[in-house]
Design a protein that fits this description.
Elements (H helix, E strand, L loop, with lengths): L1 H12 L6 H30 L3 H8 L1 H18 L2 E5 L6 E6 L9 E7 L16 H9 L4 H15 L4 E5 L2 E5 L5 E6 L2 E11 L5 E2 L4 H17 L4 E4 L14 H14 L7 E6 L1 H5 L5 H13 L2
Parallel strand pairs: 2-10, 3-7, 3-9, 9-10
Antiparallel strand pairs: 1-2, 4-5, 6-7, 7-8
Helix pairs in contact: 1-4, 2-3, 2-4, 7-8, 8-10
Length: 301
């Protein structure tokens, strides 16, 4: 129901945007196609079998039927949002999907985290509404201790330096920004990237746009060193629960595309940038501009 309300809201709101008419033509065509098809079927049944109950029901309930079809059409148009293109002179496929990252099918996932690599959701230290919280809830529910050990093993195997400190949960290791823990679990790969420092209560501190550059560059190096060349899905780093105020979601989108497309290294076979549906519905990111940027980068690589 929430998605339906969001879709209707965004649909009506889009009337003020210059590209909105294309969406409405598509919606109108789909609506009329479904409505007229149902009407035609009831007429055929009535004329060929002599059973007129379906035609009578359609005529008596046509407004309700039209309303249901309308809701279905706008929801399907607004929620089924994906776009991808093959980069020119490269075998990298780049795209975006308007969907929660935990619902996107991929081989590997990028998960922004804190420099403590904490995983506890106690007292909302790690919010279940964040990318990390959502992935943990879906993949590692009831197995957080296993996840903690896998993260520790990865960081130790890379020899990443750390300092000992404490927070509200007790003693903890603090790693540098850009540290990446690669977790392999149930034939999937998860790159936990330290993108923000936090205080003793798990709240982000010392945030700058440099955090994003450091995290993205470190991710590239980590994947090329110990990672996998596969279908990689990642969110817009630094724009979620650890939002960095100095950058916009569109800025981060372009920075991410630039890194993967311009890199001389082969980072992934396919890159999927997950766009939070709430950001899409609330116009916190310009999807049309993002698509055009992908097209531009794919043509002029």
């Amino acid at each position: 129901m929430k998605k339906m309300i969001y879709s209707a809201k965004y649909f009506l709101k889009n009337f003020i945007y210059k590209d909105g008419w294309q969406e409405y033509l598509s919606v109108a065509a789909t609506f009329w196609g479904i409505y007229s098809s149902i009407w035609a079927v009831t007429k055929v049944i009535s004329e060929t079998t002599g059973v007129a109950c379906f035609e009578v029901m359609f005529e008596s309930k046509h407004l309700m039927i039209a309303f249901v079809i309308f809701l279905y059409v706008i929801v399907s148009h607004r929620l089924d949002k994906s776009y991808s293109v093959l980069v020119s002179n490269n075998d990298l496929k780049v795209g975006l999907q308007v969907k929660k990252i935990e619902k996107i099918e991929a081989d590997s996932y990028v998960i922004p985290t804190n420099t403590y690599f904490r995983t506890s959701t106690e007292s909302d230290y790690i919010s279940l509404q964040s990318v990390q919280g959502a992935i943990q809830e879906k993949i590692f529910k009831g197995k957080i201790s296993v996840l903690d050990q896998l993260i520790r093993n990865s960081l130790d195997s890379q020899g990443i330096e750390y300092s000992e400190t404490t927070d509200i949960l007790g003693e903890v290791r603090k790693y540098p920004l850009g540290a990446v823990a690669k977790v392999d679990y149930e034939k999937k790969h998860y790159y936990f990237v330290a993108i923000t420092d936090v205080n003793a209560y798990g709240k982000p501190v010392n945030q700058t746009k440099n955090n994003i550059d450091v995290a993205i560059t470190a991710l590239e190096n980590n994947i090329c060193t110990i990672g996998h060349y596969d279908r990689l899905c990642m969110p817009l780093l630094g724009t979620g629960k650890a939002a960095i105020g100095q950058v916009t979601k569109d800025d981060v989108f372009r920075r991410t595309i630039d890194l993967f497309v311009d890199s001389e290294k082969k980072i992934s076979r396919e890159l999927i940038i997950a766009i939070n549906p709430d950001d899409y519905f609330e116009n916190r990111i310009n999807i049309s501009a993002c698509k055009k940027y992908i097209e531009y980068k794919s043509q002029f690589k």
